[in-house]
Fold:
Amino acid sequence: MNGEDKKKKTAERECGNGKTVNGGEGGVKCAISLLTEAGGKKALIVRRGALKMADGGVIVAYEGEDGSGVFFTDGKRAEWTGEGEMRARLCFDKEKFTRGEFGLPGLDGGAAIETHEIALKIKTDQISAEINYTLHFDYGSEKMRVKLIARLTEKTDVFAS
Structure:
């Protein structure tokens, strides 16, 4: 087994810091834009949700007709969980391999995640986070990019610079 395979195997047993992200109660109301890019295709999801500071980073929680999700990042690591028709739990740790699990109920699968970059910007009225990573499957790999923007829809001094 070469070094790259060992990293991927180790990633199968780890997921970030071992904590599960929970949107919990509260937070500031926000409008969320989630842009994903994979295989040259882009998709944009827009939702209403809540934003709060926690664990040295930000948590964004949202719900829609097709499911719900919670996203956490502190700029060094990130985690996204989603429930609905398709379930997912993706953990990111900058320049490390982690494990992602996703799929339909009864048809769950997973992949090793190689995180290249995690960026977090906090402004007075919005936060933005971007993750560049590669999913490694048994049959190949796919480069991905996710960008999340949460714009506050109510006044607060929590995010004042």
